[in-house]
Amino acid sequence: MLFSSSPIWQTTGLTLIRLIVGGFLIYHGWEIFNEDKMNEYLTWDNFKQSNGKLLVYAGKAAELLAGILFVLGLFTRIASLLTIGTMCYIAFFLGNGIIWNNDQHPFLFVLLALVFIFTGPGRYSLDHYLFKPKSRY
Hints:
It is a single chain. The N and C termini lie far apart (about 35 Å). The longest helix has 21 residues. The chain is globular, with a radius of gyration of 17 Å. The protein is mainly α. The chain has one domain.
């Protein structure tokens, strides 16, 4: 079984990964409610322009929303796109784009979100129950 190319516990494994990714995104997005933390971000050079406050709050809101959607397994591919956009901005515009070293963590979120673009949320999700194809008979 370990050396087989067949998946093992695919449904359970993807569900656990989706829940953990969602939890991490909620954790990071929850900073939107911490005024001190948000003001700290506004001191960064990248956010000193006129639309800096909008960018900071939009990024944290996207993280929080994507995290909630991942945990629920609702609109999972939309949550993936939110995550990919936000984390690519962090890795390539806020960071240096050195994804193999310095900006590795946000880029790992991009890769995990891509997994759910390709696989979907799995059987244990609201997407599965709300959007599964109806039987013809």
